[in-house]
Amino acid sequence: MELDGAGSRKGKPHHIPNPGQGAGLMNVAWNTMDLGILNRNLLLLLYCSLPQICTQLCRTPCFCSWIPPRCPPGVPIIVDGCGCCRICARQVGESCDRLYLCDESKELLCDYPTSTGRGTCNYNYDGGCEYDGKEYEDGEVFQPNCKFQCKCLDGGVTCTPLCSENVLLASPECPSPRRVQVPGRCCPEWICDEEQQSPVSNSLGKETSIVLQGGSRVKPLACTDWSTQWSACSVSCGLGVSLRVSNRNLLCRLETQVRLCIVRPCRNSPDMSSTEPPALPPSILSTG
């Protein structure tokens, strides 16, 4: 410490704050405090926007009915969005919000189309499909096996058969046709057992031959017999006709075969010998 000429102490000058400057520092402090409060309010608002937490939606303490909810069959009882009371899970098409939740066991989500805070329970899918444990994209065409071709569309699967759905009708030569799975082939085929064939069809045998143009003789083709059952008689009484499709011919080609049939005599026609047979449709040949 030093003394000046007057004997006074000489030291560092004292700093006297400016009143205006102090007010500025105070304003900065208040502004900083306001910004902190604003940030805290924003965080609180964001925190309250989460489900099961917002105090405006969830009451504390919980006020729940002592009677358990009675839900329709198949609708589970879950805890509401506040984690407070038991409610029935909302199903497809029902309204939902942060409190009334959708059935998650059925993969339902609350779809909010607007900002009203209420939505509708819908399935949570992206248009894809699941078939036989495999996932397929929307619009994808796939073949799960050799018998069907399927397509995934809007979460659903539609399939079309690849095998023919023809029907083999019973006939005297094949009274009990059956469809079997032939080894090495995908689609099942109709067959007639050998012991069910008539002696007439068996007598046609392998020794029969046909004469083609030019006089050459050829033996019938070796093929698997294929025949439908005979159709019902064309009339309920009197003489009628019955049809079937078969490849039992020398060319082993499918053709429409016709036979006469009678269910019972008609009351107004006691003499069946005078009844003229109906006109028979011509046989229609098609390549087998």
From TrEMBL:
Protein location: Secreted
Pfam families recorded: IGFBP (PF00219), TSP1_CCN (PF19035), VWC (PF00093)
Signal peptide coordinates: none
Domain IGFBP N-terminal: 50-124
Superkingdom field: Eukaryota
GO annotation, cellular component aspect: extracellular matrix; extracellular space
An annotated GO BP: signal transduction
Record keywords: Disulfide bond, Secreted, Signal
Domain spans labelled VWFC: 127-193
Record region (Disordered): 268-288
GO MF terms, alphabetically ordered: heparin binding; integrin binding
Family: Belongs to the CCN family.
Protein name (database record): CCN family member 5 isoform X2
Gene that encodes it: ccn5.L
